[in-house]
Amino acid sequence: xxxxxxxxxxxxxxxxxxxxxxxxxxxxxxxxxxxxxxxxxxxxxxxxxxxxxxxxxxxxxxxxxxxxxxxxxxxxxxxxxxxxxxxxxxxxxxxxxxxxxxxxxxxxxxxxxxxxxxxxxxxxxxxxxxxxxxxxxxxxxxxxxxxxxxxxxxxxxxxxxxxxxxxxxxxxxxxxxxxxxxxxxxxxxxxxxxxxxxxxxxxxxxxxxxxxxxxxxxxxxxxxxxxxxxxxxxxxxxxxxxxxxxxxxxxxxxxxxxxxxxxxxxxxxxxxxxxxxxxxxxxxxxxxxxxxxxxxxxxx
Length: 300
What we know:
The chain is 70% helix and 0% strand. The chain is mainly α. The longest helix is centred in the last third of the chain and has 25 residues, at 211-235.
């Protein structure tokens, strides 16, 4: 991992990003309602890429090439965000955010494969907590496909995010805006490609455009894409996948509270228990099983 001087505390950057990621579902669903197309949000990612180019041109060394690990990290982040963006249209907010936050559990397996991280009692406990939480969130014996497409998208999103952080950790530390120039348009492209895979077609025409949908696209591309993406990508060279997941967990609170207030979405007891176990999985992996470790610094 590369150590350098940071203009913003990486943990603070991650925490601030959760305020935007926690309400990310609002513009995504609003854009889909106003435009009539689940793929209309792709425009916001292309705009975010353009904004990132403007900031990149104002910094030194814009032509400095991304190394392979950073490129792979950008592709995985773009795939993760595009899957999450589509997933929250096809499942509940609670399921979407909770299933994404299994990423620290996947980070343990990925760390074992790429960095030879040992499977300790704490890490094995974290895996058990996380996977039990997964079963609770999805429901016992619930094999119907209602919302399952969105659930699978959000699980894959969390897995790809954990892989992305692993690539960024081992890659060269370069400017955040350079990564966003790559990530933004790639997100948009992935969402458009998913429209062909679904057989529905893009469904974006002039009839989709209105003052309302245009305003939401602008807000989405700036407030909910460019800003939180900059904050989260800025921090990836300082924090590993588990610590990133832990820092972002306030998003769960923001998402569930905002969904309960704005959509009257009911959170079941089963989902609450799943939430506790999924959050507990990250806490156990970072701090250990013993409760007195929680006022100490996280483990390396």
